[in-house]
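Continuing the series of single-chain predictions for the mutant panel. This is the parent chain; the variants come on the following pages.
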Amino acid sequence: MGERKASKDGDRKVGRRALLIGGTVAAAGSAVLARDELARLWWRTPGVEKPRKEGEVDYTGARWVAASDANWRRADRPDDYGIDMVVVHVTQGSFDSAVKAFQDPGHRAAAHYIVRQDGHVTQMIRELDVAYHAGNRDYNERSVGIEHEGFVDRPQDLTDEMYEASAHLTARICARYDIPVDREHIIGHVEVPGTDHTDPGRHWDWEKYMRLVRRARTTPA
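Parent structure:
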């Protein structure tokens, strides 16, 4: 579940990036580039914050429970970072323990969603923001993380209700960002470069899961 060490996925410095962008724009004489970059950076200016609706979810039917803001980074995805991947996790604990960990600022990690064994879906971070879940900054910026309640060495924890609910969630994410439904773009935490995690583990039924995602992808929301 998440990253074990304090995350190094801190905010990028706007000042230097803006100066570099400004130099590029001046050299290229591109008003379009300047406008696009300003649109991405305006809300990072001190005193300016991108409008948000408290408690809003990205997946219909999900319950909102906010993670600590120490466990994610505000962003404007997919405008600033394209989303092209879903990362599958297993919590290595109960649903309640995962929620508690993601609300703990000292945990320094959290996923966008947690799927309970009974199929209930909780969202803790907005998809437009960068969650510290993969243990790899690049993968964090380009992915949505989904945790699943249970332990990797207990196949009985991976219930049909969980598979179904998670598959529908992943299908909607893939549809929203035009992500291909294949194993190059829907991966396990263990497949993230540099990670020391093994989830979702050998009992996770990828054939079953991908079949369910493909079926859900062709079913109207």
